Amino acid sequence: MLDKLVNIDRRIIFALVAAAVVISLLMSFSLPVPATPPVMGIYDKINDMPPGSHVLIAFDYDPAAKEELQPMAIALLHHCYSRDLTVIGLTLWPGGTGLAEQALTSIARQYNRKSGEDFVFLGYKPGVASLIINMGENLYTAFPADFYGNDTKTLPALQGVESLRDLDYVIDLAAGASIETWIAFGKEKYKFDMGAGCTAVIGPDLYPFLDSDQINGLMAGLKGAAEYEVLVKYPAQAVEGMRPQSVTHALIVVFVIFSNAVFFASGGWRTVRRGPGARR
Q: What is the pLDDT of residues 125-172, one digit of tens each?
């Protein structure tokens, strides 16, 4: 019996994982999603801003990272629009243009916010580091026109904003290394407050910036997005996604415990202790 368990067909494990995902998607139950301090940092910053404050959101991702980062963007926009903040959107990724516009305009309609008056979408422009420096010196030379071709100098939403120095908060939602670029060429040079959101795989690399206060908050992966959805009382895609993710993680923990129990019960630890070439 133990030999069969030691040599279990991996397809059985794959089938159990698939079943766990499907069942958790079909069944309706809720799991607690407590907010962690890094996510609370962004939420508290936005919550403390007076109406009319300018928040720049950089949608630096493409459809490949949509499932993790688009829910963050939507939750952030709900928070900003509900607080009557002025949102300035842009993207340093050409593939992020459609996702950014969709998020900005669809949530704006729910709060009767108008483009050019309550929010601005500057669109995409190449350059990354050089573009950030250009925006830090003069926003209007970096973006003479918005995504729709309107003269940015005439937009009411940008009144009082000449450069990155005039922004109240900057949030970069990133699927790559753009957060570090925003910190190095923007935050450190022009001294604005900054938060970040990223895919789960990037998250561990950004905690040093959080510890050094170069960013005041961080949303990492679907979990970070779910936490923010709960904070703004708009549970949606991220909260729903946490159910199959949590169930699958719990199943993997069970697999790890079970496999170790079988390993020790079968005497496999003796081989490891002696080494593969040791005599019996």
A: 998 999 999 999 999 999 999 999 999 999 999 999 999 999 999 999
H/E segment holding residue 219: strand 218-220
Residue 159 is encoded by which pair of tokens? 């009144």
DSSP-derived pairing of the beta strands 194-198 and 169-174: parallel
Residue with tokens 């949030």: 171
Q: Report CA Rg, the chain.
A: 23
Write the DSSP symbol of residue 35.
P
CB-based contacts of 167, cutoff 8 Å, min separation 6: 54, 55, 56, 88, 161, 192
pLDDT tens, position by position, 82-113 = 999 999 999 999 999 999 999 999 999 999 99
Instruction: Give the residue among 121, 131, 80 at the shortest CA–CA distance from 101.
Output: 121
pTM of the model: 0.84
Pairing of strands 169-174, 54-60: parallel
Q: Which residues of 74-101 are buried (b: 16+ CB within 10 A; e: fewer)?
A: bbbbbbbbebebbbbbbbbbebbbebbb
**Element (DSSP H or E) covering residue 121:** strand 119-124
CB 222 within 8 A of CB 71: yes
